[in-house]
Design a protein that fits this description.
The complex is a heterodimer of chains A (about 280) and B (about 400).
Chain A lengths: L5 H29 L3 E2 L5 E2 L5 H8 L1 H34 L5 H9 L6 H12 L4 H8 L14 H25 L3 H9 L4 H29 L3 H7 L6 H9 L5 H29 L3
Antiparallel strand pairs in A: 1-2
Chain B lengths: L4 E10 L2 E11 L4 E5 L6 H9 L6 E6 L2 E2 L10 E4 L11 H11 L4 H14 L15 H13 L5 E5 L7 H18 L2 E6 L2 H7 L2 E6 L2 E6 L1 H6 L4 H6 L4 E8 L2 E4 L2 E4 L8 E7 L5 E3 L11 E12 L4 E7 L5 E7 L7 E7 L4 E3 L41
Helix pairs in contact in B: 2-3, 2-4, 3-4
Classes of the chains: A mainly alpha (about 280), B alpha+beta (about 400).
Amino acid sequence: MSMYTRGYKAAVAIPPLLWVTVFLLVPYSILFIYSFWSVSPLQVIVHSWSFDNYRELLHNPIYALVLFRSMRIAGTVTLLALALGYPLAYYLSFFAAKRKDLLYQLVIIPLWVSYLVRGYAWKTILGSDGVLNGFLQYFHFTHHPVGFFLYSPFAVILTLTHIYTPFTFLPIYASLEHIPRNLVEASHDLGASPLRTFWRVVFPLSIPGVLAGATFAFVLTLGDFLAPLLVGGPSGIMISNIVVSLFGAAYNWPLGAAISLCMLLLVVGLLAGVERLEKKLSYS
Amino acid sequence: MTPLLSIRSLIKRFGEREVLRGVSLDVASGEFLTILGESGSGKTTLLRMIAGFEQPDSGEIWMGDERLEGLPAYRRPVNTVFQSYALFPHLSVRENVAYGLRAQGAPRAGILGRVEQALAMVKMTEFARQAPARLSGGQQQRVALARALVNRPKLLLLDEPLSALDANLRRQMQTELKSLQREVGITFLFVTHDQDEAMALSDRIALLRAGGLEQVATPREIYNRPETAYVAQFIGQTNILRAEISGGVACAGTIAWRWGGSAYSNGTALFSLRPESIRVVPPAETSLPSEDTVRFRARVVAQTFGGAIDIMEIVCPDGQALRIRVPAGTSMEGEQRFEFDLRDAVAVRTTGSAAPAAGEPPDDTSSSGTPPGGSTSEDTPPASEGLDE
């Protein structure tokens, strides 16, 4: 691109660099510094340097417990979102024919609806006097409202799966659309049944999309704090809820910063791993 | 002998458009048969129906005593070489070739040997572990061939397999393809739009035009004895003469010759006269021509350099333009004498309204007398393509 002057190239580069600096590098640096500070008994942040916050994270089992719960929920949601998103994408890409555009829009439309609205919708559905309990009582499956639907890990998983399935659907659909159809024909031509063709040709070639979708679902779920807040109850608390409370009511910014940085490292490591895997598995 | 493949009255519509209009074709075992046609003639659709990627609206496809139309592609005893090769990008060359044998559950022990043998046959052994994306077009083509041939199908379908290659490689692959076919003895059904390729490779050519078969014959026969004006013009270059026939004489403007063909006793008929059939009569030549030689006068209007052979355009006194071939370096001007052997003027049917040759008035011969060839052309729509090249 030698036809562009250095001035032009600099002009193009400055806005994103500025953005990254102001909104990413500076805040993370501040977090990093905070994570080595502490809070005095008088609720004042003391600028004394120590690894106490990180030590606390290692020694107090509550953090590991909530982190593992968060990862378990994120993993479950990811698997469910893939289990829902993949067949949907496969059907749309290969068999929907004329209904393709309509169905695609139907999958996308929920993304235009506010997260909060969808969260509250589940609250209305799952609550004691909610739609689900009303339905069950009307048909006499039960005589009393079932309490465990709402305010449980189950409710969190359900809500998050609903919200993040389109995020798995989209990259999978894109990767399926990229598979040349003559490869499928070639497979049939060579005597492979539809099922064998799916496992030997279609699925392997869609793995990059699956990885991208799984990453979206896992990372976004892992950092989610609204769904647990709305439908989770005490047993549905996730790691981000702890961060929120540490920065809020508990007023322990240094500890909150330490958790945030650990989470950041976890996610960055995950993304790097997925990217390497994806490079290994794409063939163009 | 019963044919290996028998196609009977195959009809295929895409919406309103009828892309195949009752095609019937027999393919003999061990034959190299080419389906030749311009784009949109339905040749690829025909191939795809044999492979099982499309279902016919009516008609039958028989292979031996097995009826194919109902069968899904993966149960048919045919294999295809695709136009764009369609190699699996996530599998190595060796795995690509082994794909068919694995899918059919061939004994594991035998697979490796057969794959190596197939790769050796197309000279790709050293590339066995490579990914297809790292191969050139010609190499991918060889792998695609090996992948199909390793299954030892009774019939191999080839959908314009050479069209993506450049001219030199293409000629080389043509030669290899032909010798490969002799070597393995598998029946090849080859689709192309390239008439030179068809002529070079085929035992027989089936010329498809707008969804109907125009003529099925050996390359020599189809070139020397084209049945229709379209065939004559599609295969090689030709001059189409419109002649009035009466009393055993055919008369095309100022050119007249003795005509004893029974099909056209009286009325108008079209004749194909190849450019190389017309010779220049040297000005010094004074002897009378033999009784089978037709002489006429025409004016030289243009000469196009063509390497060993030049194309010369000449115009008869009545305005009829003809193209002839002369050795390069021939230099002539003004009015000259020309001659041809009357057996080289081949009567052809019009089949509907084939686009007329240069200098021909666009009308229908069957309106002015005897229907040509005993077969009128109710099954061919008007063609609007340029058919001259």
